[in-house]
Amino acid sequence: MSAEYIRLYPENPESHKLDQIVKVLEDGGVIIYPTDTVYGIGCDFSNSKAVQRVCQIKNTKPNSLSIICYDLSEISEYTKHLNTPVFKVMKKALPGPFTFILEANSNIPKTLNAKKKTVGIRVPDNNIPRELVRRLGKPIITTSIRDEDEVIEYSTDPELIYEKYENLVDIVIDGGYGGNVPSTVVDCSGDYFEVLREGLGDIEAYM
């Protein structure tokens, strides 16, 4: 069965459409959605079968996946104590185009942090994924939709994304054209900030 194609406006996403998408997530569905950087693919982070589907689609392992939280208070539910310098930077930088690598606590499903004690966490500056997380009541998985084209690297046109993934996922959300620069990945699990991938965000601006 083909995926549903749902158009939403990030400034004011329609409530009934968000509820429809959340129901699919609750039922173990996999969705493609916009962020403040590139389009992402994900599911309810606690549904191991859905996580495996995402991994099969992306040809990756669960412990390479990150999660989207609604805000800083939700991040604290899934991570060990944030030290003051890290908290201050994150408070200024989020919502924004960053993935912060943090020490995971026992609320993170074992499938996501097997053999490692950290988890990547995003709070994107886009109302669609954040509102989905808020209504779902828990994080969703996030991993980028990549393009086979080595020049483009990331797919930006939701209609073309739908053509490619319509038989692989349950819903494709059209939130307008996406970006083609991913988030900046910052490892905060040690004693200092380490940029693992330069992306759209400039962490130095918040230090």
From TrEMBL:
Matching Pfam families: Sua5_yciO_yrdC
Positions in coiled-coil regions: none
Listed InterPro entries: DHBP_synth_RibB-like_a/b_dom, Sua5-like_dom, SUA5_domain
Any one Gene Ontology molecular-function term assigned to this protein's record: double-stranded RNA binding
Annotated YrdC-like domain residues: 15-201
Superkingdom, natural source: Bacteria
The name this protein goes by in its record: Translation factor Sua5
Organism (species): Roseivirga spongicola
